[in-house]
Amino acid sequence: MISIIGAGPSGNYLAYLLAKKNHTVHVYEDHKVIGAPIQCTGIITPELEKIIPLKKSFLTNKINQAKIYSPNGNSLHVRFAKEDFIVNRTKFDSHLADMARKVGAEYHLGKRFHENQGKKMKIGEEFIQTDILVGADGPFSRVAKSNNMWCDRKFVTGNQFTVEVDCEAKLVEFWLGIGLFGWLVPENESVARVGIVSYDQPDLYLQKLIDKRCPGAKILSKEPGAIPIYNPKQTLQKDFVYLIGDAATQVKATSYGGIVHGMKAAEVLSRDMKHYQKNCRREVGKDLYLSLLIRKAMDRFSEKNYNELVALFSQEKLKQVLETKSRDYPTKFILDLLVAEPRLLKFGKKLLF
Q: How far apart are CA 251 and CA 270, in angstroms?
């Protein structure tokens, strides 16, 4: 029996892949409703369509443009060759769970994993025997803690409000230098998800963005949450225990999104459990590590650096890379950027000095 702890995108997709191969799969979810509470912006690149078919049932919006603001008020306007997707996370997660159920996975909602002693798990007040244990239980993974796989993980905080605001329905906005960065992701022309990610003072930075972009906006909901910083030394497998998704810190540090990479990790794990850690580092870890290096450099940026970066990217040759290459895989476009504009190398020096 394979026990998956956590019914988020990574856990549900893994359950689907494994049950499809006729494994006995049980998914245990702490909450009584899959996909709730929401702690995600829900913007996903076109890479999603390479993993699962897109369904209208979970799709909230599609965007084809972005405007990136520098601290001095200048902006960069890009038009994507392929649309990004804005999803309703409750419906998206539930759709993946339904896929898994249809091929035989069993779900147990409102069942909290407390710990395991060997292959005996404590779920709620029950003790359940398992053969394989998978932690897909988020950034504060109890599976990781219970099996000495926590490692040296660190976090940022995402703080987001869904608000009533006038906005362009097909355009996402990014604000550099407010916290690590801020965003406005439209659901439609009158409702958007406005948020920031930061190492500290998330309430202060979110209020700063609200005051700047939509002062006095009516708040419809609040979605704060911790986001793990990718750890290239994270233990991913130990004996019969495996970690995927946020539980494995498989989050892209440039945007702090992790849905695509977590689902890719699920594919890697379902294909070859024995060599999961090695294969995952090769197939998923390279882009996550490069994203981490880019983030470490940007953490040292001054407002002047951000202003210079936006000015450089206003060149058509750089905008074209942003518009046509997948943001999920920086290994596939970083060289194109450096060839097109060697002056970008000076920002890389932030890693050294």
A: 19
